[in-house]
TrEMBL record:
Molecular function GO terms recorded: fatty acyl-CoA hydrolase activity
Pfam families, alphabetized: BAAT_C, Bile_Hydr_Trans
Lineage, broadest ranks: Eukaryota, Metazoa, Ecdysozoa, Nematoda, Chromadorea
Name of the protein described by the UniProt record: BAAT/Acyl-CoA thioester hydrolase C-terminal domain-containing protein
Active site: S224, D321, H353
Gene3D superfamilies, A to Z: Acyl-CoA thioester hydrolase/BAAT N-terminal domain (2.60.40.2240), alpha/beta hydrolase (3.40.50.1820)
Superkingdom, natural source: Eukaryota
One GO term (biological process): acyl-CoA metabolic process
Domain Acyl-CoA thioester hydrolase/bile acid-CoA amino acid N-acetyltransferase positions: 13-132
Family: Belongs to the C/M/P thioester hydrolase family.
Domain BAAT/Acyl-CoA thioester hydrolase C-terminal: 196-403
Length: 427
């Protein structure tokens, strides 16, 4: 029979899975299904029971499956889209809704012996979500219980523009106060990134500073173009404490990655859209960005020399990134920060461009349009391992420089998980 220590957990928490009362030395399949917004994902492993008829995923390596080593969270880590889902589909969770899983124990004769429903929450139940609708700003504050003040993180959106709670919700489960804002394609905000004045990010920063429960320890957190934005903002706000930049381009670029500054388009290098390489129909953009940023001049570069030396930096780079030549860009960024005497932590990891929260499904491509697939790069197993490792190192860095927030209280966990009706019918 299946044994799961907690069927209701936070996204980043580990789950202990085992089985007992099995036939000794027989192979059994553990099959995990995740259905999110109608997109079915699955993972599996086949493990041989021991002489006592038991299997423990934290002890036993699979004979075959979507992962191959001892890993208590291997099933969660390696869920992948099934063939029923259209190629290029991307699983997103902008509102940070819970993930619901069904775990099945299956015999060699394909008989379902037992099954358990599980739930992983992106947001801790004690965290209060405060909507921001003020002075042309749209966002949300994830506030821990109590009066504060709390160490704060601002999760800066990049090319998506919309209000996206993913990183913010999971960071807030660690006790940090976290804020995120929409910048375009939302309510009455501009429709295009190119119509946004980059001053809006400073406006968001000043608003967060003004909150009575925000401490004077504030970090910026950005992925992809968001990683470039947080590096830029560091040159404008010496009162910042720390910056986390993940797979961020070296600078802004025209025509798709450029904001307005003082009402006019920023001066930046222009990308050559003939340079991406198509491999089996999937576009690798890294050569295009490598060529673009090789032409950077002082007027098109970020103003590294204007960044306060009191701001600590963490740069994370995926070695197998197909969107950017991440290693080159991050090393150049580190060198620029070293020249100005900054405290810089750099982490190079195997994986593709989109390094997200722990146990988020890996995507090697997405459909940019009906005629173009853009590659993220990487491979499922090393990429998803990196997501867990990188996340834990984010937390170490943030706690080191912002201070360790108070641990959130345990919540009343469900002992039996019921799926929402629309999911139950598809599992």
């Amino acid at each position: 029979m299946l044994h799961v220590d907690k069927v209701d957990t936070l996204l980043a928490e580990t789950v202990k899975i085992s089985a007992s009362k099995l036939t000794p030395f027989q192979g059994y399949k553990f099959h995990l299904r995740l259905n999110h917004e109608g997109k079915l994902l699955r993972s599996y492993c086949v493990i041989k029971s021991d002489k006592d008829g038991t299997i423990d995923l934290s002890r036993d390596a699979p004979v075959r499956g979507t992962y191959h080593e001892v890993d208590s969270m291997g099933l969660f880590r390696t869920v992948e889209l099934t063939d029923d889902v259209t190629l290029g589909t991307y699983v997103s969770n902008p509102m940070a809704t819970p993930f619901f899983y069904k775990l099945q124990l299956i015999s060699e004769s394909e008989e379902i012996i037992d099954e358990v429903n599980m739930k992983k929450r992106w947001t801790h139940p004690s965290v209060i979500q405060v909507d921001i609708v003020q002075d042309g700003m749209y966002g949300v504050v994830f506030k821990p219980p109590g009066p504060g003040p709390f160490p704060c993180i601002i999760d800066v959106q990049g090319v998506s523009g919309r209000l996206t709670k993913g990183h913010s919700s999971v960071l807030s489960a660690e006790g940090f106060m976290v804020c995120t804002f929409a910048t375009f394609r939302y309510e009455d905000l501009p429709e295009k990134l190119q119509d946004v004045d980059i001053e809006v990010f400073s406006k968001h920063f000043r608003y967060v500073q003004s909150l009575p429960y925000c401490s004077d320890k504030i970090a910026l957190f950005g992925l992809s173009l968001g990683g470039t934005i947080v590096n830029y903002l560091a040159s404008k706000h010496p009162e910042l404490t720390a910056v986390v930049s993940i797979n961020g381009p070296e600078s802004f670029y025209s025509p798709t990655g450029v904001f307005k500054e003082n009402g006019k388009p920023m001066h930046c290098e222009e990308i050559d859209e003939s340079l991406p390489v198509a491999i089996n129909g999937v576009h690798k953009q890294a050569p295009m960005f490598l060529e673009t940023f090789s032409k950077l001049k002082p007027e098109t570069s970020l103003k590294w020399n204007e960044i306060s030396r009191n701001i600590a930096f963490r740069l994370v780079t995926s070695i197998d990134d197909w969107m950017l030549c991440g290693v080159t860009h991050s090393i150049r960024n580190r060198e620029n920060l070293f020249k100005t005497g900054h405290n810089v932590e750099i982490e190079l990891v195997p994986g593709g461009h989109y390094i997200h929260v722990p146990y988020f499904p890996y995507h090697y491509l997405y459909a940019y349009s009906s005629e173009m697939f853009l590659g993220f790069g990487g491979d499922r197993n090393p990429h998803t391992k990196s997501q867990v490792k990188v996340w834990n190192n984010h937390l170490k860095f943030l706690k080191k420089h912002l201070g360790t927030p108070a641990k959130l209280p345990n919540y009343d966990r469900e002992t039996y998980v019921e799926f929402p009706g629309e999911i139950n019918s598809k599992l």
